[in-house]
């Protein structure tokens, strides 16, 4: 079972339009609403793959009630923590060429009691979890050290932690030695305080994060592929993608693929890449099922292309 923790979940509404024209009245050709937030997306991908998952998250207002119902419809147990503020609603506008415009709300401010209640909800379920995936930005009211406290408590209970966050929250948590951290290229560059121009520079940056406490680093390099650096070495894989429809949640699908494949080594990396490649070819923040995966599209290399120049994020 994979337990996910999403401190700032959302309802994600996606509208597909022919072209985005500022100031115009536009009619969507398709629209959908999905339960959102990085940890929620991981749970959705885990459930789509046929594994059990429990989503711990603060829920408030009618938006929170709808989010819980959508999760239950997907077969995901929602361990909701009631909060006074309303769960946020995010808007995505998708164009046919793959361009995505996002409007993310800030979400409710959590009180100290509500923040502690989320940690307590994790504690009561930690013994049944193979992995705990802690994902996303922190809502207002939570200090950057909140994830560090969660990692410390989970490790004391014997759990393995995968952490997908950035900025001060990531930096603060590294001292508690999370088992896996999952930055994208931009977040990895931010963590080491310099731009990363090549895959080789990304490898060095990942090694620096390991030196600061991360036991393994799973780095998403966008269209260039993904990188895994752990105590056994560095590994690289990419995948052929025919067309990008939406990249919302692709990184979360990758993390789910990594964890459901064991959370370590080249085989788990290949699973992560396959899940991410499948996700970008689906609408909105839809998560891939086993039928969507194409393991034959994954390309692993014996030698990491250290001199490959990283593309700009799509």
TrEMBL record:
Q: Alphabetically, which GO biological process terms does the record hold?
A: carbohydrate catabolic process; small molecule metabolic process
Carbohydrate kinase PfkB domain span: 23-290
Read off the InterPro entries from this record. 1-PFruKinase, PfkB_dom, Ribokinase-like, Tagatose/fructose_Pkinase
Give GO terms: molecular function aspect only: 1-phosphofructokinase activity; ATP binding
Superkingdom field: Bacteria
Q: Which GO terms describe its cellular component?
A: cytosol
How far does the signal peptide extend, from start to end residue? none
- Tagged with keyword Transferase: yes
Alphabetized, the UniProt keywords read: ATP-binding, Kinase, Nucleotide-binding, Transferase
NCBIfam families attached to this UniProt entry = 1-PFK, pfkB
What is stated as this protein's family in its record? Answer: Belongs to the carbohydrate kinase PfkB family.
User: Which PANTHER family does the entry mention?
Assistant: 1-PHOSPHOFRUCTOKINASE, 1-PHOSPHOFRUCTOKINASE-RELATED
**Annotated protein name in UniProt:** 1-phosphofructokinase
Name the species this protein comes from: Streptomyces malaysiensis
């Amino acid at each position: 079972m994979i337990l996910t923790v999403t401190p700032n979940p959302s309802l994600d509404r996606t509208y597909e339009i022919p072209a985005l024209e500022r100031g115009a009245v536009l009619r969507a050709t398709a629209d959908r609403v999905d339960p959102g937030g990085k940890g929620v997306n991981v749970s959705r991908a885990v459930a789509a793959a046929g594994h059990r998952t429990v989503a711990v998250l603060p829920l408030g207002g009618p938006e929170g009630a709808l989010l819980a119902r959508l999760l239950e419809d997907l077969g995901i147990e929602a361990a909701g923590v009631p909060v006074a503020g309303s769960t946020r609603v995010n808007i995505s506008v998708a164009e046919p060429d793959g361009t995505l415009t996002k409007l993310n709300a800030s979400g409710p401010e959590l009180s100290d009691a509500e923040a502690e209640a989320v940690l307590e909800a994790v504690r009561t379920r930690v013994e049944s979890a193979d992995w705990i995936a802690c994902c996303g930005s922190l809502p207002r009211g939570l200090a950057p050290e909140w994830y560090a406290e969660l990692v410390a408590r989970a490790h004391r209970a014997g759990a393995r932690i995968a952490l997908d966050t950035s900025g001060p929250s990531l930096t603060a948590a590294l001292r508690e030695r999370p088992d896996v951290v999952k930055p994208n290229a931009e977040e990895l560059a931010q963590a080491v305080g310099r731009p990363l121009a090549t895959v080789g520079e990304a490898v060095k940056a990942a090694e620096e994060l390991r030196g600061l406490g991360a036991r393994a680093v799973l780095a998403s390099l966008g269209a260039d592929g993904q990188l895994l650096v752990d105590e056994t070495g560095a590994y690289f894989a990419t995948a052929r993608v025919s067309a990008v429809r939406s990249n919302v949640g692709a990184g979360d699908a990758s993390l789910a693929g990594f964890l459901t494949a064991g959370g370590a080594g080249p085989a788990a990396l290949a699973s992560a890449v396959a899940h991410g490649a499948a996700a970008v070819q689906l609408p909105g923040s839809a998560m891939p099922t086993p039928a969507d995966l194409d393991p034959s599209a994954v390309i692993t290399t014996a030698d990491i292309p250290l001199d490959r120049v990283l593309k700009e994020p799509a």
